[in-house]
TrEMBL record:
One matching Pfam family: TOBE_2
Keywords: ATP-binding, Nucleotide-binding, Transport
GO molecular function: ATP binding
Record flagged with keyword Nucleotide-binding: yes
SMART domains for this protein: AAA
Keyword match ATP-binding: yes
Domain ABC transporter: 7-237
Recorded superkingdom: Bacteria
InterPro entries xref list: AAA+_ATPase, ABC_SmlMolc_Importer, ABC_transporter-like_ATP-bd, ABC_transporter-like_CS, Mo/tungstate-bd_C_term_dom, NA-bd_OB-fold, P-loop_NTPase, Transp-assoc_OB_typ2
Name this polypeptide is given: ABC transporter ATP-binding protein
Amino acid sequence: MSSFDTLRLDGVTRRFGGKDALSGLSLEIHKGEFIALLGPSGCGKSTALNCLAGLLPLSAGSIWQDDRRLDTLPPERRGFGMVFQSYALFPHLSVRKNIAFGLQMRHLPRAEVRRRTDEAIRLVRLDEHATKLPGQLSGGQQQRVAIARAVVLEPSLVLMDEPLSNLDAKLRLEMRTEIRRLHQSLGLTTVYVTHDQEEALSMADRLVVLRDGRVQQVGTPEELHTRPANRHVADFMGYRNLLPMRVTSVTREHVGVEGPGMTLTGTGVGDLFPGDEVVAAIRPEDLVVGEGGVPVTVEVVEYQGRELAVEARTDQGIMLHLRAAERPAPGDKVSVVADPARVLVFPGEPS
Ligand SMILES: Nc1ncnc2c1ncn2[C@@H]1O[C@H](COP(=O)(O)OP(=O)(O)O)[C@@H](O)[C@H]1O
Ligand SMILES: [Mg+2]
């Protein structure tokens, strides 16, 4: 196994027909880290992964494994493992043979192939299915074979491109835990691509949020959750209320903003001045029924486990997403409030 301390992407750029699919991605990945590349469809996640894997040549930039330049090497000389959304198993080979295939290609001694294959089968909990063909397995089991096939080669880096998107919701949850467990127990370094914000937050040590081929923010789940760098990241992190407003006052701590039929006090992200057009971002769970806030009329109430998810409209017709502990009725007039620390005010740059 070619091990390393740091994998460094330096201005990695890939163009298709004059348009940047990925623009100047710079990132240091440390050994043992689980990195998620997160963003909506078309933002450049697969492009980034394929550049790392060597399946796509770079248009500009470079990739380094410690002091060794990687981007000029063909995929097979990078020593990475890949898992795709489609499992791409050999349909005519058993689970065991699928997993052993890569080891056999490397002409390892037969006993070692057997030992490592057994170990990989055990790790992904397919002991009882080792002699079956892929067609006799469920989607989740097939994806486990694909994962075992990648990790059995002890790659220095595992690349996964939306590996769970073909599975149903319950299995996706199970496989999340499974992949994280494997990552830890094998001491892997993993780059995981997903458009699912919850998946990324729950699995990764650090997230890289992409939009239109550009990095928006790199940070831990906690950092992205509580301090999104801009309104696009906020949008992705579950700040469902994104309200166009105008700054009325700025103090050292807080920013006063007003919009149609509502005034709020929030916390500025970046330099703001009275009169600026801004976007106030609030998560539904931070907007609650309380005295002296924004007057709204309740429209829809949904039971969601411990809480009620409520949609309500201001007098000027702006829809707000909030939470309530007690069930209001559609048509009820209530007032909603938010802690100024949880109302993030972003510059309203053109999108
Ligand atoms: N082979 C290609 N030829 C032309 N355009 C491509 C190609 N692959 C990707 N793109 C474009 O690059 C952008 C990023 O694509 P991709 O990396 O696949 O996004 P994601 O994986 O985040 O959904 C998209 O606009 C896509 O249409
Ligand atoms: Mg993709």
